[in-house]
Amino acid sequence: MLTSTPLASLTFFEGHPDIVRDVRSNCFASLALMVWDSLLTFGDEVEYIWPTPRISKFKCLYLFLRYINLAALTATAVAISFLTSGSASELTCRIWFVFVVFIGQFSSTLTEVILAVRAYALCSRSRRIALFLCILIWSELITASLVTLGRARGTRASFGTVCLLIDLPKKTLFHAIPLLITQTALMGLITIKSVLAAQAGWGRTPLVSLLMREGIVVYFAMLGFLAFALMAYIQRDDRSILTVFWFTSIMSIFGCRLILNMERLSRKLSQERMGGSYPAFTTQIELE
């Protein structure tokens, strides 16, 4: 474990300048990706998100995923030089760790909520399915919170002088189990209902095709992150914290695009059926 002394800080910088450089560059790169996507989708946001009622749940989800996460990544980018300077105290490192991990977890949870609403709609609004998905998502969130807080407060937490995580304990990977179960359940429900819809003759509609396609993309992206985290642990890679930066950015982008794509399709279907009337929001779409 590294100690928070000037000598330890100097030794770390001399021996691991590449680690400090990689963490800083990935922090800015993940922020740049999110800003770039925000600019690309700003026109759709103005057209499909802003006109919706203030109490819309999906509007709140979108604004959180887009702007709260953007503010969090910006704040991290501003502070990253100090956090990796060797001057930050261990308490600061612990607080920063909890902050960035919770932002990433909330991004993942909100994206799962969006997918869960879609699966719920595909399953004819079954209360059993809704209860099952709620239990999975809440279990994942609680597990992640306990693991994160335990990691930050535990005596075995080894924060170096540049706020990098050194020697991640095995229990940190336990969070991957409920995450994998939740994502697999969501993907399984969407896939099964899509196949049944295809057999019934309406599975090739634009709505079902959209749900299926985007569910697959999010699922395999999650698998990619889990595989990367597992490899980082096996190799004892001190750069593992940069996974959180990219996870937050990409989950925010996925969540926002899930909502935008659904609203765009909703507007199109509403105009076709009712001659251009105001679009139904995502939760109002009925699958028969």
From TrEMBL:
Alphabetized InterPro entries for the sequence: DUF6533
Lineage top rank: taxon: Eukaryota
Mitochondrion is among the record's keywords: no
Regions crossing the membrane: 64-83, 95-117, 129-152, 172-196, 216-234, 240-260
Keywords: Membrane, Transmembrane, Transmembrane helix
Domain DUF6533, first and last residues per copy: 27-68
Keyword hit for Cell wall biogenesis/degradation: no
Protein name stated in the entry: DUF6533 domain-containing protein
